[in-house]
Specification:
The complex is a heterodimer. Chain A is α/β, with parallel strands linked by helices. Helices cover about 35% and strands about 25% of the residues of chain A. Chain A has helices at about 40-50, 70-75, 95-100, 110-125, 140-150, 170-185, 195-200, 225-230, 290-295, 320-325, 335, 345-350, 360-375, 390-400, 420-435, 445-450, 475-480, and strands at about 5-10, 15-25, 30-35, 55-60, 65, 80, 155-160, 190-195, 205-210, 215-220, 250-260, 265-275, 275-280, 305-310, 310, 325-330, 405-410, 435-440, 455-460, 460-470. In chain A, the strands form 4 sheets. Chain A has a 6-stranded mixed β-sheet, sandwiched between helices. Chain A has a 6-stranded mixed β-sheet with strand order 16-17-18-13-19-20, with helices on both faces. In chain A, strands 2-1-4-5 form a 4-stranded antiparallel β-sheet, with helices on one face. By secondary structure, chain B is mainly α. Chain B has 14 helices and no strands. The chains are: A alpha/beta, B mainly alpha.
Chain lengths: ~475, ~325
């Protein structure tokens, strides 16, 4: 199917997310949409998928203008979108998920659907057990299921939003092969990403968005420097790596086990020294999330001991850890880190520990000073839900106490553009030079190799590898993440 | 806002086949038409506003304190118990003060029961509060027909009347209590101050908006849930005490006059802002008091005021909901 978007505008209150976008996509092509966070790519794709209503503009499919009010109308016109978090029912089985939108008659006709599911999966090289529960699947497998479901609904245009986030390199290879095959079958594929590598290996043509407008378009083969220029205006520098010699241990975990996530963690031991940057690698749900929460006192270990300096902390709550200098920054910034509805000033006022009255003037002063120092695009009266992801992360960093002993970060650069990533690491490294020990989890191996001193790989709840970064490489880490040590 | 209120009320009156202008006139004259009427309205305004002040605390921390009704009753029972002990004593003024303190404590403790059920037992505060409402109501009936029954014959009309020395002093002609008004205004200002100027108020707001993040910022949500419930119950207990010492001068089965439930509507219509509550509470009591005239004058049922109140709140909630959705887009 041929798609033409003409002069698309989208306003969110005071934000002009799409500012007159023209886009044409040829039938059977794999078309990449590149752009940093907030460039308007997700909005544009959600408009095409019927999930968001456009403010202005026209959409034409095979030269016929169409209007639609919702995602199901878009699906019936042949447009389907694979969201970053697959829209499925975790407690149902794979087959039930596959059937849920397709059963129109009174009888479920399970056998028929099972056959179709297996045929489609086989054609694309996916291996899915129809009777497995979706909540036990990896993100990559859920994505495969969602893809099959959309294809079975007769979708001709597939939109994929950051499909390679959180999946293994093997799953990525399978996905890309499947997409190539689909494009040969004249399906039109739109790939939204901020990873150049994905776009370069897969796409025939790419459109770069910047501040809600089309910054440029290019056919394969791509000129990377020009793409980066379109995305950011100027080439972002690489994040810095730590240059500090680590000192005495600040956090020691011995034989710690705990439950949480899919795998929990089993018998993990780790010692982090002053000024050391330790990365936790692994596929999502392999135990690194639980490990960070155990180290922060947010979860209690089933067995093992946790020490901060020479103080045994096992069994104490997060506030006791916090008092000893441990700061934790969650990856769900708006859900767990910040408080929607409270202004930036109020966030700083919450940190005042003494007295009955709030010293509003002091809080206001602090908010102003931190907004300036952390270069947050916002005012003291701004609320976090109105900030972009990068600015939310800056605010979270601005809220932690000066010079923490240990900083625990859950996917600190998730969803940030390269400028923000660089700023975040610049800032974190300034802590490291003053002796803070950092443990962070990340889905991006390149980032880990770039900034960490040491990397610990989790697989199925266990630490399968603990090496200095200079003694390993991408390939070895990738294998460890897939369980081959 | 005001146009919406008048418009919706007119619509309801038209649906009830009532001449709107005449009905409004009777409502206004019947509620603020004379000093006596105004003082009658204010006597209802006092407990309603007290309950609403308390509810602002529990709403702020994110709780649906349906149990406010039982907290009013618990405050009334405690106050009655104290007055019974002080019937023969000297210094009735002191006893009245103790009754208010006791009523506040009784309502507050009753509310913290709901709070503990929630934080320790995982019982949703709506179910816990509703259950305790029935318990409080049951205890009232048991007391009226059992231990505290009138000499001779127990009756639905309540316990024996207290001697006038234990009545809250009121202006003779108007039967309006200046002390009650002063207390309500103090609670109102105090609650607003707590909410906007203190760490407590900010902590409640933070926890109400995102308990998980508030915990990471060093607050203990469970502790503040108990505190907010205690404050809410304390205000409701004051309302219950006022019903005993300032209105009925005894314990009756319907001692709360449903002001707890009505206060939930007041606070929702106020969109949880404390400074809007006294005006809305005043308006609601005007409707209640004014509608007493409707059956006599226009052959309308006085329950029309309840329909108007309920519709207004639903209308307002709908409006807030639409506004939120538009902002969310």
């Amino acid at each position: 199917m041929r798609i033409a978007l003409h002069n698309i505008h989208k306003y969110y209150r005071d934000v002009h997310a799409n500012d007159g976008i023209h886009l044409e996509i040829a039938e059977g092509s794999i078309h990449g949409i590149l752009g940093e966070n907030g460039a308007g790519k997700s909005t544009l794709m959600k408009i095409l998928a019927g999930y968001v209503r456009k403010s202005e503009g026209t959409i034409a499919l095979n030269d016929l203008p169409v209007e639609y009010g919702g995602p199901s109308k878009a699906t019936s016109l042949g447009i389907g979108m694979l969201y970053q978090d697959p829209l499925d029912f975790p407690s149902l089985t794979v087959l039930e998920n596959f059937m849920v939108e397709r059963c129109r008659g009174f009888f479920a006709e399970e056998a028929l659907h099972r056959r179709q599911l297996l045929e489609l999966a086989k054609a694309l090289g996916f291996q899915l057990n129809p009777n497995g529960r979706v909540r036990e699947l990896t993100v990559g497998e859920r994505q495969q299921l969602e893809l099959l479901r959309l294809l079975a609904l007769g979708v001709e245009v597939l939109i994929l939003d950051e499909p390679t986030t959180g999946i293994s390199s093997i799953q990525r290879r399978i996905l890309f092969a499947a997409l190539k095959k689909l494009s040969q079958q004249k399906k039109t594929i739109l790939l939204v990403s901020h990873k150049l590598k994905d776009v370069e290996t897969l796409c025939d043509r790419v459109t770069v968005l910047r501040s809600g407008r089309v910054a440029g378009e290019m056919d394969h083969p791509f000129d990377t420097n020009r793409l980066l220029n379109w995305m950011f205006g100027s080439m972002p520098a690489q994040p810095p790596s730590s240059q500090v010699e680590p000192g005495s241990p600040v956090l020691i975990m011995e034989g710690v086990s705990g439950s949480g996530g899919r795998a929990g963690v089993q018998a993990c031991s780790l010692s982090v020294r002053k000024g050391e940057v330790v990365a936790l690698a692994g596929l999502a749900g392999s135990g690194q999330e639980t490990f960070l929460r155990l180290a922060a006192g947010l979860k209690q270990p089933r067995e093992g001991t946790i020490r901060i300096g020479d103080q045994v902390m096992t069994g104490k709550d997060h506030h006791a850890f916090k008092a000893r200098g441990v700061s934790f920054i969650p990856t769900a910034r708006l859900e767990e880190g910040l408080i929607p509805g409270l202004t930036i000033t109020e966030h700083f006022a919450l940190r005042q520990q003494r007295g009955i009255k709030i010293l509003w003037k002091a809080a206001q002063r602090m908010a102003k000073e931190r907004i300036k120092r952390f270069r947050i695009l916002g005012r003291p009266s701004s609320k976090p839900e109105s900030l972009s992801g990068g600015n939310q992360q800056r605010l979270l960093l601005a809220l932690i106490p000066e010079d923490p002993l240990i900083l625990l970060l859950e996917n600190p650069t998730r969803g940030l553009d390269m400028e923000s990533i660089r700023w975040v690491w610049d800032h974190l490294m300034s802590y490291v030079t003053r002796g803070t020990g950092i443990i962070f989890s990340s889905m991006e191996l390149e980032e880990i190799i770039q900034v960490a001193d040491r990397v610990v790989v989790f697989f199925d709840g266990a630490m399968v590898k603990d090496v200095r970064v200079c003694d390993t490489d991408l390939h070895a880490l990738g294998q460890a993440m897939a369980g081959r040590v | 806002m005001i146009i919406g209120v008048v418009g919706l009320s007119t619509l309801i009156l038209l649906l009830a086949k009532a001449p709107p202008m005449a009905a409004f006139q009777h409502l206004v004259m019947g509620s603020v038409g004379s000093w006596l009427k105004i003082s009658q309205v204010l006597t209802g305004w006092i407990p309603l506003t007290l309950c609403a002040c308390g509810l602002v605390f529990s709403f702020r921390v994110g709780l649906w304190n349906i149990g406010v009704e039982g907290q009013v009753v618990a405050g009334a029972i405690t106050a009655t118990a104290i007055l019974r002990l002080g019937v023969d004593g000297a210094m009735p003024g002191t006893i009245l003060v103790i009754a208010f303190l006791g009523g506040m404590l009784g309502g507050g403790l009753w509310a913290t029961l709901t709070g503990f059920l929630k934080v320790k037992g995982g019982v949703n505060e709506i179910f816990g509060g509703l259950g305790l409402n029935f318990v409080a109501q049951g205890i009232t009936l048991w007391l009226i027909f059992g231990p505290w029954k009138r000499p001779g014959v127990a009756s639905m009309s309540g316990t024996e009347l207290f001697p006038p020395s234990l009545w809250l002093p009121s202006l003779q002609a108007l039967r309006l209590s200046p002390a009650g008004l002063a207390l309500t205004c103090t609670v109102l200002v105090g609650a607003a101050w707590l909410m906007s100027r203190t760490r407590l108020g900010l902590a409640l707001k933070g926890i109400g908006n995102n308990p998980r993040a508030a915990y990471l910022h060093g607050l203990k949500p469970n502790r503040y849930i108990i505190i907010a419930m205690g404050l809410a119950g304390g205000c409701a207990g004051l309302a219950g005490t006022f019903q005993v010492v300032g209105v009925y001068h005894r314990l009756i089965p319907a001692i709360s006059s449903n002001y707890g439930y009505l206060a939930l509507l007041v606070v929702m219509l106020a969109n949880y802002r404390i400074w809007a509550t006294p005006a809305i509470a005043f308006f609601f009591v005007c409707l209640n008091v004014g509608s007493i005239q409707l059956p006599m004058m226009l052959q309308l049922d006085s329950s029309l005021s309840g329909i108007i109140q309920g519709s207004l709140v639903l209308g307002a909630l709908l409006l807030y909901g639409w506004r939120r959705r538009r902002q969310g887009e």
